[in-house]
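Go through this pair.

…
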Amino acid sequence: MLFLFLTFSVVAAAPPDGAEWFGRAQAARQDENYGAALKALENAEQEAFSPVRIAFERARIETLSDDRDAAVAELQALADNGFSGLGFITGDPILSTLEGHPAFDVLVAQMAARAYPCEHDEAFRAFDFWVGDWDVHVAGGGFAGTNTIERAQRGCVLIENWSSAGGGAGMSVNYLDKATGEWVQVWNAEGGSQIHIRGGMTEEGMLLVGTLHDVASGTTTPFRGLWTQLEDGRVRQFFEQSTDGGTTWATWFEGFYSRKQ
């Protein structure tokens, strides 16, 4: 019995660890006892508790105690040390009230640019003239189908979903290969046509060159596509195929895109 009592006494007398000090800081903050909360965080820090969680809690306390400059400086230090979880800041009910503070707004913009680089790089906007919901007609005016091109993955990708007037369908993934500076399209259709083309903007428009593979026949031929933004707001899509290794080219498809009303 004496041994059990001594053991219990030792356990009961153990000093608070980092997690307990952190919990005390949160409780003190909720009681609006900000001085005690900051002191508890210092103790949690001495116990090597999570530096990120401590920084967040300290920034919350500083925000609530109207030391907004200090709160922003705390968050800036986190970002400078590689923290990229922007949503944890903008989604926090306390920290989000810092919006409108000039330094906070700059910090959010900087973190957003690092977290979602494609959204903040103009090079990824070069093909945006093709984005939208479209009705597509052939050169003679006949209705060819509809096409929807949408930005995805925070602006890193354009997704195409084509629906033919004849009942067929296909889709493509389009993106800027930042390593090479080239735009890439990878197309697949239910009929077995597979297109792999790449290139970039020219004076005529977006020109991509590569191959067309037909799954049914197993043949692969040179292929190229040109997208041109017209003065009236339409987009011309012009595909050509070569059956002699690129010496001569024949029209594979020509369509004119009009935005749906």
